Amino acid sequence: MTGSNAVGRVSVPQFGGVPVHKRLQDAAGALERAVMVRLVERLPVYGTLSAEHLGGDIAKQVTRGIRSFAAVLSTGEMPGQAEAAAIRESSARRADEGVPLEAVVGAYHLGAEECATQVFSTAEPGDLGDVLLVQRQLLAYLRLVSCEVAAGYVQERQTALSDEQVALQSLLSRLLEGGSPQAAADRAGIRLPPCYLVLSIAVGPHPDELVPGMNHAVAARRKLRRLRNELQRQTRGVPLSVLSGEGGLVLIPYETPAADFGRVDRDRVSRLVQQLGRMCGAELVAAAAAAAPEGVAEAARLAGEVREVAEASGRGPGLYLLDDVLLEYQLSRPSPARDGLAALLDPLDARPELLVTLRAFLASGLDRRRAAARLQVHPNTVDYRLRKAAEFTGLDAARGADALTLRAALAAHDAVRQGRPDSG
């Protein structure tokens, strides 16, 4: 025999002849104190909050939740828009305070457990029907509350992250423009490091981007996400970046002053580039330049030029500094000598496969088999093309002196073809 009575069409559950919502309302004060104790015991983050905070807003929300569920038991209806909005607002405040989402959701579940313990202990054998009704309403209430908590929390974090991202992008723009970035750093809440390591990165394709029928856009986004995540994991401080699936710029805060950047630092950054490549599953060609915050704009320009020269000269994946490409870099600067060197390769304009083979042969350390593997042709094909290139240019790539001239000619040829403007 159930203890429910009917108010209109609403079935109001009763335990021991007393409406359950009335039991909750009468015990609200004691329930609030019990829930607060459990929050601190079971969810350690709440124990780190001040007594004023716990006894103020948190306790107020606990009481509100108890009374809100009592209203559900009384009316048979879930909370309306006003109550849902209040739950979202409270969750947003917890997000702003840095309370983890799982703790916010867990607080409502602990409160529900305490309420259930309080009222179910008063149920009598004949109240089984009402016990089941209260359980259904409690689960429905928790489902609604969990959704509203998540919605309010996520919206607040998205807003905060958007604001943070805007501030970080503003700092990045200021650094790349040159001049003092201090005001932008203050707005972003970032301490400017003694030095920024500027990386200009070219990102090769992930294997999935080369598979026919694969969603290449998704593969590229996954590659980029892994790159960013690993960059954040490997970096102390806040790295700044503008990256796409093909590459871009990264600014890494560095505690070593630019003037003291040496071999140990270079090895460390080289390992970082290798690790980034492994984690994102793609080959990276990166060039680095170190500079104080006020000099980032010039360092970014230099790193970009060094990377372009390294790629154009056939260098493989890895890290490059200016010292690694001094000859090619200098020959990429406008001069009569550069134009003369570039003209040495003009006879090959109609035979692009010869030019490609020269690049591969020089990049492979004058090893014909390695060059053949890189080009995916037979070694005899490499030999034939090198002989034809020698006939057209008068320069034999297998001879040391000619190889040096050809390397310089390739650098000059690429610079002329790119139409690089004078740098002054």
UniProtKB/TrEMBL annotation:
<dbReference type="Pfam" id="PF14361">
    <property type="entry name" value="RsbRD_N"/>
</dbReference>
<dbReference type="InterPro" id="IPR042070">
    <property type="entry name" value="PucR_C-HTH_sf"/>
</dbReference>
<protein>
    <submittedName>
        <fullName>Transcriptional regulator</fullName>
    </submittedName>
</protein>
<dbReference type="InterPro" id="IPR025736">
    <property type="entry name" value="PucR_C-HTH_dom"/>
</dbReference>
<feature type="domain" description="RsbT co-antagonist protein RsbRD N-terminal">
    <location>
        <begin position="33"/>
        <end position="165"/>
    </location>
</feature>
<dbReference type="InterPro" id="IPR051448">
    <property type="entry name" value="CdaR-like_regulators"/>
</dbReference>
<dbReference type="InterPro" id="IPR025751">
    <property type="entry name" value="RsbRD_N_dom"/>
</dbReference>
<dbReference type="Pfam" id="PF13556">
    <property type="entry name" value="HTH_30"/>
</dbReference>
<feature type="domain" description="PucR C-terminal helix-turn-helix">
    <location>
        <begin position="354"/>
        <end position="412"/>
    </location>
</feature>
